[in-house]
Design a protein that fits this description.
Number of domains: 2
Oligomer: single chain
Structural class: alpha/beta
CATH class of the largest domain: Mainly Alpha
CATH superfamily of the largest domain: Dehydroquinate synthase-like - alpha domain
Helix content: 40-55%
Bound molecules: fe (ii) ion
CATH topology of the largest domain: Dehydroquinate synthase-like, alpha domain
Length: about 375
């Protein structure tokens, strides 16, 4: 059987960036490294620059990526790319640097005016990319999406193109060793949500479900011990995040993500936490509507639905309280988002509002 799932070459293991430095070689002669500040502390930037030096590849560093990157951040990186003459891009960090790197790589090949950036219909050209996650949650290293702050729509919006698949992804759990507990928890909830949401889409397939189930199987027991994880746990979290990324690479996410983006944009709730806050009640509403995938998610986790909802609640701790009128506005806007389409249960606006109010207004299930 011939089988192609994603075009990204995944290289995993501690020390893999230096051990497989040659994997950067075919990407180009000069890199733009797109990153934030933490890659200077966790050793990742030093490893990448040493690997490039081994290959006699030159580089420039754009280290000004902020959380939930905006178009102005992307354009600043793009200007540096053009000034430096870079012909490939390295995304290094959590989801934000990787998303910014992807946007820079595609806009370099396919320039657009600001108001056209979220209009879709991208072609299949972008500068080649290597991605190196330093958190275990986004899975962006293996997806064809870049998610950016969209000030026109007051939310976050994804750009899609097959050209956004990185050529290479390096997974080194060592870069995540010193993440603080709140980042470890938020990003783990993002990965868990990706795997679960992928199972809830009509576009899930036997192949995507293999990745999603394996991710849930690994992740669920680990969600209870994220305070100070051992190295092996860190490695497992990063692998599970990558598996969940491969699942959503084919299916996309559900309205959990569509709804969570409002919480991030308006209330500054971290992306993974926003998903964690909303996922439990979303699973409950799918179960109430008889969607068998909820049972499959529970089976992969080895837990009852109530237990999963409780585990997510414990991880979230004290919940943000969002005024009911905000939730009503978000529910109406969520109905217009692309994540709401093609789920195994088609929610009404009242269903979406119920998820919001049960999750964030203290209303009873
Ligand atoms: Fe996510």
């Amino acid at each position: 059987m011939n089988f192609s799932y994603i075009p990204t070459n995944i290289i995993a293991g501690r020390g893999c960036v230096l051990a497989h430095a040659a994997a950067f070689k075919p990407l180009g002669t000069r890199a733009l490294i797109v990153t934030g500040q933490s890659s200077k502390m966790n050793g990742a930037l030093a490893d990448v620059t040493a690997a490039l030096a081994q290959n006699s590849q030159r580089f420039a560093v754009f280290d000004r990526v902020t959380p939930n990157p905006t178009l102005s951040c992307v354009k600043e990186g793009l200007a540096l790319l053009q000034e430096s003459g870079a012909d490939f891009v390295i995304g290094l960090g959590g989801g934000s640097p990787m998303d910014a790197a992807k946007a820079i790589a595609i806009l370099a090949a396919e320039p657009r005016a600001d108001e056209e950036i979220f209009a879709g219909n991208y072609g299949n050209s972008a500068l080649p990319m290597a991605h190196i996650p330093t958190t275990a949650g986004t899975g962006s290293e293996v997806t064809p999406y870049a998610i950016l702050t969209n000030d026109f729509a007051r939310t976050k919006t994804s750009i899609f193109s097959p050209a956004l698949y990185p050529k290479v992804a390096f997974l080194d759990g060592g870069y995540t060793d010193h993440l603080p507990p709140h980042v470890t928890k938020n990003t783990a909830m993002d990965a868990f949500s990706h795997a679960a949401e992928s199972m809830l889409k009509n576009s899930s397939s036997p192949a995507s479900e293999r990745f999603a189930r394996e991710s849930l199987r690994i992740l669920y027991p680990l969600l209870k011990s994220l305070e100070n994880p051992a190295k092996e746990t860190r490695d497992a979290l990063l692998w599970a995040s990558c598996l969940a990324g491969m699942a959503i690479a084919h299916t996309g996410t559900t309205f959990v993500h569509g709804m969570g983006y409002f919480l991030t944009y308006d209330h500054g709730v971290a992306h993974g936490r926003a998903n964690g806050l909303l996922l439990g009640e979303t699973l409950r509403i799918f179960a109430e509507n008889g969607v068998p995938a909820v049972g499959e998610i529970c089976a992969a986790c080895g837990a009852e639905l109530g237990e999963i909802i409780n585990t997510l609640s414990v991880l979230c701790g004290k919940r943000e309280k969002i005024p009911r009128e905000n939730c009503e506005e978000y529910a109406a806007r969520a109905m217009q988002t692309k994540n709401i389409k093609a789920c195994k249960f088609a929610p009404t606006e009242a269903d979406i509002l119920r998820v919001f109010t049960r999750s964030l207004c203290g209303e009873e299930a």
